TrEMBL record:
SMART domains: KLRAQ (SM01254). This is Protein phosphatase 1 regulatory subunit 21. Keywords: Coiled coil, Endosome, RNA-binding. Pfam families: KLRAQ (PF10205), PPP1R21_C (PF21636), PPP1R21_helical (PF10212).
Length: 770
């Protein structure tokens, strides 16, 4: 229940973590888009500033031009005043020129004003947008920081929860392993007692002797069957492989155009045939290796027969799976435009043969499972039914041989009919010949297996091991007891060959056994006491060494303190018994010693602090005469010192725990990083392999297309040569009037041939280009 709760809590934390990660990613994307917009606005602002610079430059040019025009106007007015006496035509001309300049100047002024207004509005709009975007960017950055803080907090909490759950899981796993070990020990003890009880019951039964001749015969028969099974497996592998190659060639060639989805699925299933056929040989090889001279070979003890039966069932299911695709593939061959009526009839006969072969394999599977059942479940197959099962198995092996022989005959007839077709290719002929050859070897191997099984049917149905006067089959416990008795007999015979020691009377042996048992028990008790005493002595020796060291240290400290106390007493006596000047000198000496103690405290640390406190303590002890007060002062001093040391020890422990947790976290992070690195390296390796494979496929496809193009070019050249020769023949035949009809028909056929060749070439080039 605790594990389920932890798993539920993990899933909830993972869901929250995914949601927060998605929100953070969205906010980062929004922030990036806003930064991009801000960048674009900055670019537009720089562009507008450049436009403003160009407009100001243009404005300066226009202002200079206006000044020049005003100067010219003033000059023209001055000339006009001087030339009024000359007539009215020059004044009119000056007025017209002035009006043109005034209009031009007015237009430039209006244009300049309009451009200033547009620039001001654009600048204001850009500033507003920039302020809005900066504000929004600031808000989004704050939201992103908040989301990141929440994500970090949840990640920390999640990691702590994971660590706690992992520790709980480890504890529970240790507990589960302990319980499993205890349960395993209990089961082993139970099985030992059950076997002991059963063997004690079976000791009084009639156990048959070991039949060495039967074992040698069984091993020989299993070896022959193994060779036949190996031939059968090789023939089945060839048959399925060549069938897969034929599906890719006929009725459609996969190298020119894609085959139908049905045939693609059929080819995919046929490609997996080795996974179902190979285990037949491996499991029967294990069965052959399990039959030795020192074993008991009956249906109840041949455990490896069950694995062979399971593999045979898997192969039968494989045949049932591919049977509909085989039938549909033959129907597609019948629907081909060049399929004749005879081929259609042969395809229908092959459909019936395939159904019959699959049905015979299903029946063989049932009988083989029946034979393997006694090795799993005791008394599952009675002794009277075993011979009937073997007989039926032999009959169906002959039926399998007949069905495969009939299918091979029909395939030979079909191959002969296909070779007569005008569109048959060399590749199809070769594949069909290989397929017919695999069917011939399959027919031969099934015939050998059927003949072998029929010849050894008496051996299979005979009971090589059976208790005397009983028709019940041998069970595994009796077989085990038989082998144990054989080993005991062999050991007894081997012991008989050695010289035997003098025997001991039974009563003496019993008394000796009691004495030996009691002495062994007492010896074990004394051994335990000696071990305990040795451990206690070793522990006491360690404590003794520890306290000796402590005593030496205390002795050294005591000598130092006695020396210091003697010096202080001498100084105090001198100070109390002398003159005021001597008292002053003693006080100054005491102060100087106190200052030296403080200096040593700063330099040496804890030891000097203790010495200084002892100096003050001794000073007060010399002035206080009461022993109880002295003891109280000493006790108080040492209690304070013990408190300080305890505090320092707790601080050190807390720091050590903190450092230990940090080291564990760093080690876990390092392990996670290593795992991610290994995963990424594996992904890179797979990607490189895929790239290499795709490059190889591309090169192969390119090479095949180039070969096809060269072949078609050669074919086209040969067709052109043939066409030119036929044209020459037509020209020759045109001279004779008697063969006019023949010439016209030949010319028409040539035109049709040329048209068909052009259509074929255009189709091929279109497919290559696609």
């Amino acid at each position: 229940m605790q594990q389920q709760t932890s798993e539920h809590y993990k899933r909830a934390l993972r869901a929250q973590n995914q949601v927060l990660k998605k929100a953070v990613v969205d906010e980062q994307a929004n922030s990036a888009s806003l930064k991009e917009q801000l960048k674009q606005k900055d670019q537009s602002l720089r562009k507008q500033e450049q436009e403003m610079d160009s407009l100001s430059f243009r404005n300066q040019q226009l202002a200079k031009r206006v000044e020049l025009l005003q100067e010219e106007l003033a000059a023209s007015e001055a000339k006009g005043r001087k030339g009024k006496s000359k007539g009215d035509s020059p004044s009119q001309h000056g007025l017209q020129t002035q009006s043109v300049f005034d209009e031009d100047l007015q237009k430039k002024i209006e244009e300049n004003e309009r451009l200033h207004i547009q620039f001001y509005e654009a600048d204001e709009q850009h500033r507003r947008q920039e302020a809005e975007l900066r504000t929004r960017l600031t808000e989004l950055e704050k939201d992103s920081e908040q989301h990141q803080a929440v994500v970090d907090g949840l990640t920390t909490k999640y990691m702590e929860t994971i660590e706690r759950l992992q520790s709980d899981k480890a504890r529970l796993e240790i507990k589960a392993q302990t319980l499993e070990r205890e349960a395993k020990d209990c089961r082993m003890r139970t099985e030992e007692w059950i076997n002991h009880l059963k063997f004690s019951d079976y000791n009084s039964l009639n156990v048959p002797p070991h039949n060495r001749r039967h074992q040698l015969k069984a091993r020989d028969v299993a070896g022959q069957a193994l060779s036949f099974i190996q031939d059968l497996v090789a023939a089945l592998l060839n048959f399925h492989t060549y069938t897969e190659q034929r599906v890719h060639i006929y009725p459609l060639d996969s190298s020119i155009e894609p085959i139908s989805p049905l045939n693609q699925k059929f080819s995919q299933y046929l490609h997996e045939n080795a996974a179902y056929v190979r285990p037949l040989e491996d499991s029967f090889l294990q069965l052959h290796q399990s039959i030795t001279e020192d074993t008991v070979t009956v249906l109840e003890t041949v455990v490896k027969l069950k694995s062979f039966a399971d593999n045979f069932s898997s192969y039968t299911h494989f045949l049932q799976k591919i049977l509909p695709y085989q039938l549909k593939s033959l129907e597609e061959e019948c629907e081909a435009p060049l399929c004749t009526a005879a081929l259609t009839m042969k395809n229908h006969e092959l459909q019936g043969d395939m159904k019959r072969v699959t049905s015979v394999f299903e029946k063989l599977q049932n009988y083989i499972n029946l034979l393997a059942l006694p090795s799993v479940q005791q008394d599952a197959l009675p002794q009277s039914s075993t011979s009937a099962v073997f007989t039926q198995l032999a009959a169906f092996l002959h039926s399998l041989h007949d069905a495969i022989k009939e299918m091979s005959k029909h395939y030979n007839q079909k191959a002969a009919l296909e070779q007569e077709l005008p569109t048959v290719t060399q590749k199809l002929c070769t594949t069909t010949e290989c397929l017919v050859g695999s069917l011939s070897s399959l027919t031969s191997s099934t015939g050998k297996i059927a003949t072998f099984f029929s010849n050894n049917l008496d051996f299979f149905t005979s009971s090589g091991y059976c208790p005397k006067g009983c028709t019940v089959a041998l069970n595994p416990l009796q077989a085990e007891s038989m082998l144990a008795n054989k080993k005991k007999a062999a050991g007894y015979i081997h012991a008989l060959r050695k010289p035997r020691p003098q025997s001991v009377p039974y009563r003496d042996a019993l008394s000796n056994r009691r004495i030996l048992t009691s002495s062994t028990e007492s010896r074990e008790g004394l051994t335990q006491q000696v071990q305990q005493s040795q451990e206690k002595i070793a522990r006491l020796e360690q404590e003794k060494e520890h306290w000796l060291l402590e005593a030496q240290l205390g002795k050294v400290r005591l000598e130092k303190e006695n020396q210091r106390i003697a010096d202080l007493e001498a100084q105090l006596a001198a100070a109390l018994g002398g003159s005021p000047s001597s008292q002053t000198a003693a006080a100054s000496t005491l102060a100087q010693s106190h200052e030296e103690a403080e200096t040593e405290q700063k330099a040496a640390g804890k030891e000097t602090t203790l010495c200084t406190s002892l100096v003050l303590l001794l000073y007060w002890l010399l002035h206080v005469g009461d022993e109880e007060s002295r003891e109280q002062l000493i006790k108080t001093h040492y209690m304070v010192r013990v408190g300080e040391l305890t505090t320092q020890l707790q601080i050190s422990d807390s720091k050590a725990v903190h450092f230990h947790s940090e080291c564990r976290a760093l080690a876990k992070r390092l392990a996670i990083a290593e795992k991610s690195r290994e995963t990424l390296s594996e992904e890179v390796k797979l990607a490189n392999q895929n790239i290499t494979r795709l490059q190889d496929e591309l090169a192969t496809t390119k090479r095949s297309y180039e070969d096809q193009l060269s072949m078609m070019s050669d074919h086209l050249c040969s067709m052109n040569e043939t066409l030119s020769k036929q044209r020459e023949e037509i020209d020759t035949l045109k001279l004779g009037s008697k063969v006019h009809t023949f010439v016209v028909s030949a010319f028409c056929s040539l035109l049709k041939f040329k048209l068909l060749s052009r259509i074929l070439l255009s189709t091929i080039f279109d497919s290559l280009s696609s």
